[in-house]
Amino acid sequence: MRSVADRLPRLLSLVPYLLARPGVPISVVAADFGIGERQLRRDLELLWMCGLPGYGPGDLVDLSFSGDTVTVTEDAGMRRPLRLTTAEGTALLVALRTLGDLPGMVDTDPVQRATAKIERAVGDAGAGGVAVGVTEQEQATTAVLREALESGRAVTIRYFTAGRDAVSRRTVDPMLLLLVEGRGYLEAWCRLAEAVRLFRLDRVDDVVVLAEPAAAPPDAQPADVSAGVFRPRPEHGSAVLLLEPRARWIAEYYPVDEVVELPPDDHGDDPGHDSADGRRARVLLRYADPAWLVRLVLGLGGGARVLEPPELAAEVARRAREALAGVESAEETIGETAGVGRP
Amino acid sequence: VPPGVNLLAVVERAVGPPPVIGTARLWVADGRAHGLRRTGRVLGRLRLADREGDELEIDLRSLDTVARWVAGYGPDVVVQHPPELAQAVRRGWAAVAAAHEEAAPERTLLEEPTHEEAVR
Fold it and tell me: pTM, whole model, 2 decimals?
């Protein structure tokens, strides 16, 4: 495979190179391309077979050898610069950007260089480039992780666990980069957890490739992500939430069970959403950490109410009231300090 | 496509992250709100109402999204700027408290949470 990847670009560059240097000695060409003369002659023999459909004389690349020099006598149109129509250019751009936005899957560097070139070539139609989804940091993380995978090294990552709202440093043995539901993940043996874990690439804040080789246990089983990344486990808790129409997105965004549609609230609790889709819902939501659920509900401004379990509802109420009290005492502090006149 | 319409810009507005419209300053308690900390810049140490913490600056894109996110951390954060964000977060907490009133009836004034409780 390597030789094809090397040879095709060389064949494509040979014609313009030779066109610019009629009668150049074979030895010079070989030296310029960093190959042996035998390989060069094989390349030239192959070029001789290349050309445009029709494949008659005049359609094929023709070369004339004279002693130890070579000249292109017929370039089969390769002198013509490549011109893309706007439609062709746009199609290429869309394809390239889709490739480039796949987190973790593609070496984004060449993709981006190609995108930039075509954008310039397409001109106005490609102006104002669209960058969607993947941040620069995630791309950098992905590049380093791919390097570690290719060289078979272990890595130390600083990882943010959203469920526990904690940042930890851990050494992992990379196994695979994968894409699930539009997000990039690293699958690795986590030495801290002593298990296979999926790490979301946009939550990897720092990667250091170690000198030591990756050593996932041979029996480490890849995760089954066919049903999504979140796999309910027996030790997970579950809560029943009442979702107002404005918080209905929760039911689509997080894996929930038992969605029960309810008629709109009589009290008009959610003004502006009394249309046909303004229905409330009762859902069962599973969670690994109760603190995560408390944070979720606390951020929804009453859009979600915890119906069960009662102790979680009480915790949400307590946190909300504490937060309100905290703001008040903070304001008093600031007021006092301002009155005294802080230096 | 009508003349003068930039389709790519339309797509970007629809699916891309909204542009940064400003910055927000928050106080975050020590050892808390790691999700906020990792996206923000620490401006310095700040002691607020007898609690130690950091002053944090974060990019503000959508007021609603940031308000929802910040409010999730409850008493571990206090929005200092801008006032619209502080108000949105405060309103959110008041609505959460009201929605969960039955679950945990508010204590009388005599039993207001103390700072010791808040710190915990």
Answer: 0.63
